[in-house]
Amino acid sequence: MKSKKTLGLICVILTLFLSGCGPQSKAEHRTDVVMGTLMQQTLYIQGENDNITREIFGLSDELEKDFLSKRVEGSEVFLINSRSGSAFRVSDRMKEMINNCMQVSEASEGAFDIFHGRLVQLWDIDSAATKEVQDYKPPVKTAIDEALKTGGYQNVQMQENALSLQEFCLLDPGAVGKGIALDEIAAYLRDKPEITGASVSVGGSVLVYGIKPDKSPWCIGITDPFNKKGQLGFLEIKEECYIATSGDYERFAMGNGKVYHHILDPATGYPADNGVKSVTIVSREGWLSDALSTACFVLGTEKGLVLAEEFGSEALFVTADGQILMTEGMKSLFRQTKP
Ligand code: FAD
Ligand code: MG
Question: Which domain holds residue 212?
Answer without folding.
Answer: 25-336
